[in-house]
Design goal:
The chain is an alpha+beta fold and 298 residues long. The protein contains twelve helices and six strands. It has helices spanning 16-29, 73-83, 90-107, 116-129, 136-149, 154-169, 173-177, 185-199, 206-218, 224-234, 238-291, 293-297, and strands at 2-3, 6-8, 37-39, 43-44, 48-52, 57-63. Strand 5 and strand 6 form a beta hairpin. Helix 4 (116-129) crosses helix 9 (206-218). It is elongated and about 90 Å long. The termini are far apart. Residues 255-282 form a coiled coil.
């Protein structure tokens, strides 16, 4: 049994069914909002959906038809640390740990099914967040450990992301939206997503939203109207995409600011070290001159 989250709705006057619907959506997306307290009380049994009511708290028990018990968040984190044992600077590690938690909850949802657009979104988020990491080799090693900790294939993520990026660069805003009338590998992937979304079997996530935006960006079709048409063609709620893209942009903005502060700190420390080294060198020269009779007599 895996502990996930719990919410208290003491200040919200809603019917029981409305509360259950809202909590289900909130828990599945791993989001938090002002006015709600989040506590670790929800549990998942993976095998159907069951909700129990009380006057002050709504509990959700999620179950799946699979008999395999999914790992806990702690186990996934432990797998990551075992796979990558080198220290990670805190500015990167904090974000990585949060991403691992979010993706773990997505990964082990009953409705989860990997798709290349989701993969592109995850790769885009990771590469953006880890931009400027001291070592390119370590950055890729961390990615490998991250995906393997979730029991997925990091090579598949990279390959799918590359395919989608190459495809998007060859598209226009009209051809991108009109994928349903065309044949091809990527077009087939998008058609499959649209079909699953229409039937209610699609598991939407923030990474998927970022993947969509990346497709638009690479095809030079990032206008809001194009995004609206693409969401409609995919049977995806555009409001959800807009919201999650705003969250993503905000995260990137904060990370850029943090990296700038870190760079300033590193530059200051480097300058101080250089000044200390020069001062020490000068002192050594003076001491040598004072202690060397030949130098003094010259």
């Amino acid at each position: 049994m895996t502990a996930i989250t719990s919410l208290s709705f003491s200040a919200v006057n809603q019917s029981s069914s409305e509360r259950n619907t809202f909590v289900s959506s909130l828990a599945s997306r791993n989001l938090s909002f002002e006015g709600f307290r989040i506590r670790s009380v929800f549990s998942c049994h993976y095998g159907g959906v069951k909700a129990s009511n009380s006057t002050s708290r709504t509990a959700i028990h999620c179950m799946s038809t699979s008999t395999e018990v999914p790992p806990t968040v702690s186990e996934t984190k432990s797998n990551f640390l075992k796979a990558y044992k080198r220290p990670i600077p805190s500015i990167y590690n904090t974000v990585l740990q949060e991403l691992i938690v979010q993706q773990h909850l997505m990964r082990y949802k009953k409705t989860y099914l990997y798709d290349p657009v989701f993969g592109l979104g995850l790769v885009t988020v990771y590469d953006q967040l880890m931009e400027g990491y001291p070592s390119d080799e370590d950055r890729e090693a961390i990615f490998q450990a991250y995906i393997k900790a979730l029991k997925e294939d990091p090579e598949q993520y990279r390959i799918d992301a590359k395919k989608l990026e190459e495809w998007a660069r060859a598209q226009t805003h009209s051809s991108l939206v009109d994928f349903s009338s065309k044949e091809g590998e990527i077009e087939g992937i998008l058609k499959g997503i649209a079909e699953r979304a229409a039937s209610g079997n699609f598991s939407y996530s923030r990474f998927f939203a970022v993947g969509l935006f990346r497709l638009l960006e690479l095809s030079n079709a990032s206008e809001p109207t194009v995004l609206e048409k693409l969401c409609s063609a995919l049977n995806i709620n555009k409001r959800s995409v807009d919201r999650d893209l705003d969250v993503y942009r905000g995260l990137l903005s904060k990370l850029v600011q943090a990296k700038e502060l870190l760079k300033e700190y590193v530059d200051r420390e480097k300058k101080k070290q250089e000044e200390r080294a020069e001062s020490q060198k000068a002192n050594e020269i003076v001491a040598k001159c004072l202690g060397d009779p030949q130098v003094v007599g010259q």
